[in-house]
Design a protein that fits this description.
CATH class of the largest domain: Alpha Beta
GO molecular function: ATP binding
Number of domains: 2
Distance between the termini: 44 Å
Largest sheet: 6 strands, mixed
CATH topology of the largest domain: Rossmann fold
Protein name: ABC transporter ATP-binding protein
Pfam family, one: ABC_tran
Order of helices and strands: EEEHEHEHHHEHEHEEHEEEEH
Structural class: alpha/beta
CATH superfamily of the largest domain: P-loop containing nucleotide triphosphate hydrolases
Helix content: 25-40%
Domain ABC transporter: 5-230
CATH architecture of the largest domain: 3-Layer(aba) Sandwich
Strand order of the largest sheet: 5-6-7-3-8-9
Keywords: ATP-binding, Nucleotide-binding, Transport
């Protein structure tokens, strides 16, 4: 398999509202992929289409090499935890495990029971009486115990306190490491992405602004500060991401796969938060991919 998810010109319309437009994306297997973007970027719609919960209006998508059409065989390969980490308030923890076993042909009862014991959850406790963190952990247990090839998490920790978030992410990484599962994690919390993700996708207005392995992206991006100059005066081959100017000084964020050329500037690598925010701002301002000036263009 060359990709866990491939989308081309994907779109989704609800009546007069366009929730997803022209989304093109290819995600490799074997990663914990962080999906980040502003509210309304189309992240939840994309993930629900990937799970087979929604049908796209336009475009094409394949998940694990198949169209996510809601077929039982496809659903068994994908685990999903929604934003509100849904559980059934009137069902006990044990009832949830029984339901999971009945609905998933590849259900791992030993794994589910071991996780419940590790979390210290009372099997007789009604889900409605659990804390937010406990419900999130129960939802994660249901998702990983079906032994999916792909686990999709749509902001599952956004409403949790810092300790509950840390515990959730720790248990997530334990499950991923043990079962070699690919993960797509949507989150607004960049600190969480830094903790667990090794691949990043920045989505703004349904368009992919940035995608790649985190270490590679951080190595390729630089913030350079120099005496005021035009963007056209930068060395050829630099991909300009953003530019700010004062009367005497210019600050550029640039991307280059090769070492940054020497010049009369100071340069530094970006932290992940600065990298994400730069592309979020750029996407909202311009809505178009960055361009690279061809070699030989006049400085």
């Amino acid at each position: 398999m060359t990709a866990i998810l491939q989308a081309h010109a994907l779109g989704k319309r609800y009546g007069q509202r366009q929730a997803l437009t022209d989304c093109t994306l290819e995600l490799p297997p074997g990663h914990v992929i962080g999906l980040v973007g502003p509210n309304g970027a189309g992240k939840t719609t994309l993930l629900q289409i990937a799970c087979g919960m929604l049908a796209p209006t336009t475009g094409q998508i394949e998940v694990l090499g198949e169209r996510p059409d809601g077929a039982t065989s496809q659903l068994a390969r994908v685990g999903y935890v929604a934003q509100d980490t849904p559980t059934y308030a009137n069902l006990s923890v044990a009832d949830h495990l029984t339901l999971g076993a009945k609905m998933n042909p590849g259900w791992d009862a030993k794994l589910a029971q071991a996780r419940i014991e590790q979390l210290g959850l009372n099997p007789k406790q009604k889900a409605g009486k659990l804390s937010g963190g406990q419900r999130a952990q129960l939802a994660l247990t249901l998702a990983v115990a079906k032994r999916p090839e792909l686990l999709i998490l749509d902001e599952p920790v956004a409403s949790l306190d810092p300790l509950a978030r840390r515990d959730f992410l720790r248990h997530l990484m334990e499950s991923v490491a043990e079962h070699d599962t690919s993960v797509i994690l949507s989150s607004h919390l960049i600190s969480d992405l830094e903790r667990v993700c090794d691949y990043l996708v920045v989505l703004v207005s349904s368009r992919v602004q940035l995608a790649g392995e985190v270490d590679d992206l951080l190595a390729q991006h630089h913030r350079i500060v120099c005496t005021r100059r035009r963007e056209a005066d930068l060395p050829a081959g630099l991909q300009l991401v953003s530019a700010e100017h004062t009367d005497r000084q210019s600050t550029f964020v640039v991307r280059t796969p090769s070492p940054l050329p020497a010049d009369d500037w100071t340069a530094e690598h970006l932290e992940l938060e600065d990298l994400v925010l730069t592309y979020l701002e750029r996407g909202l301002d311009h809505g178009a991919p960055a361009t690279t000036r061809p070699r030989g263009e006049a400085r």
